[in-house]
Amino acid sequence: MGQITEIEQYIIDKVREKRIKAGLTQAVLSVAIDLNPKFVGNVERLKTDDKYNINHLKKIAEVLGCSIKDFFPE
Questions:
Q1: What does the alpha-carbon distance between residue 4 and residue 64 come to, in Å, rounded to a whole number?
Q2: What is the pLDDT of residues 47-64, one digit of tens each?
Q3: Known Gene3D superfamilies for this protein (predicted)?
Q4: Alpha-carbon 4 to chain mean position
């Protein structure tokens, strides 16, 4: 398992925050973006090398009704 960068952690935290605020479980968000039900949980737990890519973030933003920019620092 590789090292996680500061920006990757920021994005994971922002996605988690918005997911929880929307009342979605990890599995529901995973399926909503057409991925394995365990994907979001794997990303959030940092126990695997699973990470969000730009396409994931675009789909997540659509599902959560926000802008992809909301996942990045100013």
A1: 24
A2: 899 999 999 999 999 999
A3: lambda repressor-like DNA-binding domains
A4: 14
